[in-house]
Amino acid sequence: MSDNFKPKIVAFYCSNCASSAASVAESMNKALPDNVKIVQVPCTGRIEILHLLKPFEEGADGVYVAGCQEDSCQYVTGITKAAKRVAYVKKTLEQLDIEPERINIYNLSAGKGQAFVDVALEMNDIVRKLGPVLSE
Amino acid sequence: MIVAEQKPIKEILEMVKDYNKILVLGCKGCVTVCNVGGSKEAAILASTLKIAARKNGKKIEVEEHTLERQCDPEYIDEIKDMIDDYDAVVSIACGVGPQFLSERYPSARVFPGVDTKFMGGAVEHGIWSERCAGCGTCVVHHFGGLCPIARCSKSLLNGPCGGSSNGKCEISKDVDCIWDIIVRRMTELGRLEELLEFVPPKSWITARDGGPRRLIREELVL
Question: If exposure means fewest CB atoms within 10 Å of the residue's CB, which of A2, A23, B30, B99 is most exposed?
Answer without folding.
Answer: A2
